[in-house]
Structures are given as C-alpha cells and as structure tokens.
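Researcher: Go.
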Amino acid sequence: MIRFSSAALQCAELFVSSLVHVVYGFYIFSTAVAGDLSQSLNEWFHRNKCSDIIRVTQKDSQSLNNSNDLPPIVLVHGIFGFGTGRLGGLSYFAGAEKKDERVLVPDLGSLTSIYDRARELFYYLKGGQVDYGEEHSKACGHSQFGRIYEKGHYPEWDENHPIHFVGHSAGAQVVRVLQQMLADKAFKGHENASENWVLSLTSLSGAFNGTTRTYLDGMQPEDGKSLKPLCLLQLCRLGVILYDWLDISWLKEYYNFGFDHYNLTWKKIGFWGLVDCLLGKTGPFASGDWILPDLTIQGSLRLNSHLSTFPDTYYFSYATKRTRSVLGFTVPSGILGIHPLLFIRVLQMCHWCHPSDASPPFKGYRDEDWWDNDGALNTISMTHPRFPVEHPSCLVESNSEFQNVQPGIWYYKFVEGDHILFIINRERAGVQFDLLYDSIFERCRKHAFRKTPLTLPNQ
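Model: Structure:
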C-alpha cells in the first residue's frame, strides 16, 4: 500500500511538472510568434511612409564605427536557451544586449553538451567550420564537423583583442571549458591560442558545481549519467528525438536543440534509426553527450577536475537564491516572488537528500549545504568552483566592492531571485534588471583590465 501510494505521488508530480513545463514552453513560443507577427504587420503598414524610413546619420555612423573598436561582451545562454536569430525577436537576455554598443549573443545548442557548446562558441567568434574533434566525435558517434561560419563575429580575437564573457546558468561553465581549451591549444590551426584571450568572465546563476535538480528531473544520483525509467527527462528525451527526426525546416529555424551533428533526421536514419534512438541505443542520449549529465554533481566534478582559474582573467559571479531558514528548516522565501515554473522545484530542492544506499558524490558532501537554491541550481554551486578543489574566492557585499579587484579570484555576490529572474521577461526583475546589467557592462568597459600588458577594455 505504501509502495502504491509513493508511485501514485510520483506520477502525480510528473504530470504536474510536465504540464507546467509544456505550458511555459508554449507561452514562450507563442509570445515569440505573436511578436514577429506584430512586427511584420507594422512594417507592412508603414513600408510606404517616408517618415518611417530610418536613415543613419553621419553621427550614427561614427558611433557604429567607434563601437567596432570595443572588445565585444559575449552573452552566453544556458540550458534550453537561444541566441540572436532564434524565436524571432525574442531575447533570451530580455534585451540586456541593447545596453551596450558591442554585444554578441551567440546561438549555441540548447541541450548539447558543454564540450560541444564550447567548440561551437569558438568558431562562432573566430569563424570557420565547427570542429568537434576527431577523438570526441568518434567516441560519441556524431559528425566531426558542424555549422560553417563564413565570417566570424570577432575574427580578430586573440591575446591582444580579448573578450568579456557573461554566462547565464550552464553558459558560465561553457566559457570556463572554452578558456581551458584555449589554454590547451585544442583548436587545430589556432596554436597561438591562450587563456588570455578571455579578459573577464561574469557568471549569472552559473552552474559551476552541478545541481541536485538533475536528480529530481530524472538523472540517477548513483552515477549522474543514466536516466530513471519514468521521469521528466525521459519525456524531454522522446520529444527532442521526434522533433529532430521530423526535421520541419521552418520550425528548426525558429528553434533548434542543437543536435544537427548527430544527423537524427528521417532522411538520414529512417524509421528504424528512430526506433534505435527512442530505445536509447544510439544518439546523444545514449552516448551521454548532452547537457544534463554535465549538470549533475558528478558531471561537474569530472569537468572541474580539468578546469583552471587563470591568474590574468577577472572572474565575477552572482549567486541567486529563493530560500531562507526558518527555525532551522530551509523553506521557499515566499510564493509570489517565485516563477510558477520553478516553485515546485524550489520546494523539493530544499529537502533533497542523497540516497543513503549510494556513495556520496564527493568526500565531505552534506545534504544541508545544498538546500539553498533558486529553483534550478543550488546556491552553493553558483558562487565559484568549489569541488573537487576550491578555487580562490572573495564574498562581495555591494557592487562598489567589485571595482577594486584582482585577476585570478572569484568575486561573488548573493542576489535574491529565482533562476530566470534576469532573463526572458524584463518586467519581472524591474529596477533590479537595470541595476544588475548596468553594473556588469560598466565594469566590463571601465574597471576590468590587465596590468601586464596594460590592456584597457576601451583601447
């Protein structure tokens, strides 16, 4: 009877979670479509009115030319995210890219592994055909080469023209992996690469040490690699495989999960190939080359064991939380302030415990250290890389303390907010949105610089 009640409760939770995610996904998609239709109708209505023709004045041209002299600030999206050109005119960063004259928002795989996304980010900036690496491609069973960028978005990128990166959620870990690849000279034909190509990294709710939410969504806590038989991620897996197999061109142009290098379309693998993917015999979910295994605590430990904090790069992070302690118990900090998409997970993550019959993910692991969260990530995971080795760090109480900083140290600040407060919907964050992004961009432009050699961001 107890076992039946537990199963019924799990099924009910799965149904509610699935429904909430589907509804929110449809809301985002319909919002993007509505925005595009509105813009198209507006352009059609005014296309013959001379007063609506936009002319670039000499002053405007001078401004554009000056902006090209600035090192770009690259905004890197997280899981299920998208860059410029996807979902019509919708902005993953809620329009924050408009706050500076030189901002890039690359479109990377929304569910591809952190390794694959780091490779894609490099070629997005430098140009050329994405090379995932021969050894990695063979091990994971996908094509070695991917999308072609005829011209990079910042082809002059090198140690003398470094870049500021701002990563949300998994996007912050993508930049860390990319910087390590640069240090290891992992890109064929670019042996002059170095870690100093990255001037600064700012993390916004960054996924540095994994999250217990992955286990609630369906990853097995015993190994951090395999999926539970019935879970939210299984439904996601089936949906993604069918989406890529159907290969509806206009739909994939609008939104793409990023698995094109796996050739999962019906033209490439046919019906029986689809069956093999659905049964978990082939494809990214079979090889583990997708983002969820990277976001488990075990997966993050594997990544972090090979990643460094470099002495000439500036590191900043904002760790979000929507929990508080009441009489020794961790509980959600209110109801109205937490997005409906995240509320159930905030509550569940407050009380999640690693199975007693499984080995803890690392020595010294304690459940209570991981209870503070923002609905997607544990707050302990967002401050700085901690496991398996803790990197140099410094707690910051106010933004003014961010101005007198040293490279090679993670400066982190706690922010009251859920995981999606500063993306998608600008109105939710209100004045906090402007305060946060204004301070980040101002710091990139004025405060972060190298002393040897002297390289100011605006030079």
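Model: The chain has 16 helices and 13 strands.
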